[in-house]
């Protein structure tokens, strides 16, 4: 199967490309490298010895998308390319709607021109918003609380309408919880530009000495220890979920949303302790005020991923911490080390 991967040089994209190549798929990556490095793909090639087709391009460039897809003639597309910082989306909502929604429309148009009818979409649990109940299942109301989450919900709607209008189309909307960790090789991993917004990369940068201490946003939430609780999912498990979605799409049509998480909640303090135990590194931290917009707790129902995709997470929080540390300690400056 030939798979076209937008954003394939990114954190989740590169891990998914690695899994695709190891499973003998043929891959072409389309990436602007605006928030990723071609070095990630070079390392994926080194790990697999397999070729990766690559086009440097922007999903807002319809002509470039049309040409790249027409040339590769994919059987399926995995769509990662997009903007993904919640805080930034509050400051630049129009950029987020343009890239995340119009970019998805452009991609579907290019797919139509080449007769490709299968898309696996990088969505997010952020579409659920404030929990009406937990664990979140796929029937939970869609009520995103920030522009980033709204762009993911809108893009899901675009794909759903495209599926209904396109004979034989298949759309899988994978709602990620909190992706963390790195491939066991330590050769690829999360490499945020600038100050990390997310918890795990910040902890990793404290551990490697790039940051002084971690600020824990809030110690008065209604959770086991007062700190925020999330469902962290190992990026290699997440990558494998994309392959399960592709395998499912071969014999299916229509549009399906599927949560991708472990079903387990872990608090900030629990993650800090797990990281310290897994790495032997101390993580200096102090509890400060809550971060605006944060939820106290959410985690996923994993039933649909099991029943529909025959997929479930295998890695636990210790693996997530140990692989994060291997990546960060062997690449203190991420891909900037070459
Ligand atoms: C996790 C917990 C923070 C940083 C976001 C997006 C989501 C997805 C993942 C794209 C919270 C606490 C964090 C820090 C802290 N991204 N924290 N100190 O906010 O759950 O999810 O990233 O798809 O869509 O919403 O992830 O890692 O930022 O926060 O205490 O320096 O860690 O308060 O409880 P979040 P996060």
Automatic annotation (TrEMBL):
Which part of the chain is the NAD-dependent epimerase/dehydratase domain?
Answer: 3-261
Coiled-coil residues: none
Cofactor(s) of this protein: NAD(+)
Pfam families named in the record: Epimerase
List the InterPro entries hit by this protein, alphabetically: Epimerase_deHydtase (IPR001509), NAD(P)-bd_dom_sf (IPR036291), UDP_G4E (IPR005886)
The record's Gene Ontology biological-process terms are: galactose metabolic process
Q: Which UniProt keywords apply?
A: Carbohydrate metabolism, Galactose metabolism, Isomerase, NAD
**Functional pathway:** Carbohydrate metabolism; galactose metabolism
Q: Which GO terms describe its molecular function?
A: UDP-glucose 4-epimerase activity
Provide the catalytic activity annotation: UDP-alpha-D-glucose = UDP-alpha-D-galactose
What GO CC terms are in its UniProt record? cytosol
- The keyword Membrane is annotated on this UniProt entry: no
Name the enzyme group at the top EC level. Answer: isomerase
EC number(s)?
5.1.3.2
Q: Does the keyword Zinc apply?
A: no
Q: What is annotated about its quaternary structure and interactions? A: Homodimer.
Family, per the entry?
Answer: Belongs to the NAD(P)-dependent epimerase/dehydratase family.
Fetch the PANTHER family from UniProt: UDP-GLUCOSE 4-EPIMERASE
Name of this chain's protein: UDP-glucose 4-epimerase
**From what organism does this protein derive?**
Palleronia abyssalis
